[in-house]
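Technical note accompanying the year-one report. For the benefit of new consortium partners, we illustrate the data format agreed upon in the data management plan: each record pairs a sequence with a structure-token string. No post-processing was applied to the example shown here.
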Amino acid sequence: MKPIDFRSDTVTKPTPAMRRAMAEAEVGDDVYGEDPTVNRLEQRVAERLGLEAALFVPSGTQSNQLAMGLHCRPADEVITEAGSHIVQYEGGAVSALWGIQPLMLPGERGLLTPAQVAEAVRGENIHAPRSRLLSLENTHNKGGGTVWPLERFRAVVEVARKAGLAVHLDGARLFNAEVATGTPASAWAKLADTTSVCFSKGLGAPVGSALVGSAALIREARRLRKRLGGGMRQAGLLAAAALYALEHHVERLAEDHAHTRRLAAGLAELSGVKVEPSQVETNILLVEFTRPASEMVSRLASLGVLLNATGAHTARLVCHLDISAADIDEALSRIRRALES
């Protein structure tokens, strides 16, 4: 029985063409700035997002944390949505690495309002931390792959600017937002000081993210990357996969979005599971089971369908490069069997 893995879009395997690109990559020592493939990737990403410079890093967590270190000092505060990746999935790094205090605001499927941000910014007070950074996530993972409408994003950023805050965009799945809306990724990235994008999620590369921003910020980020142990050597082997993904796997994200809608529509017809097909915007689907989610995850695993529980009765399914339309139909058949047993 072929496993159908909905746990994340990070579980993909490199395609044969991507493996060839890796094998044939021209390499050098990236810490010396001498890896031509890394340099080409960084230039291409910066151009794509309409910014001056980019830095290739091993992971999205490191990319986000470099931004935290760039914009904040110990005892500063970062304002973010309560379900954001920087506070939910990065091991407490904002506090452990930088001494930053997160202020977590409840969002609407991961999105904040200008009024929320304005109210959250602290005035100067010796008893309080300084509000220093606003960090936003697009698409929003825990929100169910929610895309920030550009004008709402712009309005929230304007509030932060007026308050003197820097802005970081966690754009791990920013290209999903681009493909879903037709709005260039650069439209969001140009509004932020720094933007993180990931190659190992929807784009299907085995490793890597990039931090993008001004030349001055990226120079300092390179220093912080070294401090965190992220100075790689012949990293062109990895950058080649990321470069291939950027050049060949962005437009195909539309297939993942279509598969997710198809999955949602099929699940909506089954009893024992609740889903909102109208809320599917990209490649992430949130579902609610009448049975405990842990039980359903176990039942489905025995049938070769893998997914992650996110709460007592809730779970997340993510479509990606290695899931086909036929896999969606087969998964629906197996899920029906699990619900009926």
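Partners are asked to follow this layout when depositing records. Residues 252-340 form a domain with the Aspartate Aminotransferase, domain 1 fold (CATH 3.90.1150.10).
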